[in-house]
Write the C-alpha cells for this entry.
Amino acid sequence: MWNDGLRARRDARAAGRPYLSSAELSKTCITQAKRTEGRAGLGDVSAVVLQQSLVLRDDGRVYVAKVGDLRVRWSRPLPAAPTSLTVVKDAAGRYFASFVVDTEPGILPEVDTEVGIDLGLTTFAVLSDGTKISSPRFLRRAEKKLRRLQRELSRKVKGSRNRTRAQIKVARQHARVADRRRDWHHKTSTRIIRDNQAVYVEDLAVHALGRTRLAKSVHDAGWAAFVSMLEYKAAKHGRHFGKIGRFEPTSQVCSTCGHRDGPKPLHVREWTCGACGSVHDRDENAAINTLAAGRADRLNASLERG
C-alpha cells in the first residue's frame, strides 16, 4: 500500500496534477485494489493498517493512527521505510518512537588486527595492544545532585502533586546519567569494532558482582550493556566476537612464558613472573591472555566443525 501510494503521488506530480490527499489515495489504492484479483486478499487485513500505510509524511513528522501528527526530534534518518512503529514512555516522562526497518548489514573492510579486552572498575577497559580506556564514572559524578534531589523527594507528602514532581526530577536525573553512559558505550564499542577484525572478552559474572560491595561501581560501569553492544555490532559489521570462560586464569598466567604464578589480591596492579622475570601490568597481561584464549577457542571450534 505504501509503495502504491508513493507511486500515485509521484505520477500525479509528474503529470502536473493536484496533490493527492490521503482520502483520495484510500479510494484509488485500497478500495479499487480490493476489487482486483491480485489484491483481493487486502479485504482480510485491518482497515486501520491499510489507511495508516498511505499517510506519507515528508515534513519530519510521524503520523500515528487515532492520535494524529506528532512532532519528533530525530536521532538519525531512517535508512528505509518503516514496517512498524512502537511508542514507549520512560520513567522520566519522555516518549520514544522505535521503528522497525529492513536494512542490509554494513560489512566493514577487513583489517589485520585482533584484540583482547580486560574490563575493570578503576580503568574501564585495557586492550591487549596496551590501550587503556578510563572509566567516565557517570553515576559517581552525578551523585551529589542525586542526593539533593532524593532529600527533596523524601520531604514531600506521599500522594501529593509535589511528590510526583519530585519523583520525575529524580527519574530525569537518572535518565541523563543513563543516556550519557549509553552514548559513551556506543562510541567506544563502535571504535573497537571498527579497528579490529576480532574482539575477545571475558564472560563476567555481572549479576554476582552486583550483589557485592562493588555493586554501585559495577552498575556505573555498565559492563553487560557494553559487551552486548560489542557482540551485536560485530555481527552487524562482519567482525568476529568471542567470549572466554569466566574461570580462565587470565590474571594469574604470565603472557610471556605461560607460567601460572597464582592468584593475586586486587590491590596488586603490577607483578613479576617468578619463572622468566617479566614485569607485567596486571590488566594488560590479562587482556593479552584473553586474546590468546579467545583465539584458541575459535581455532578449536573451527576444527570441531570441519
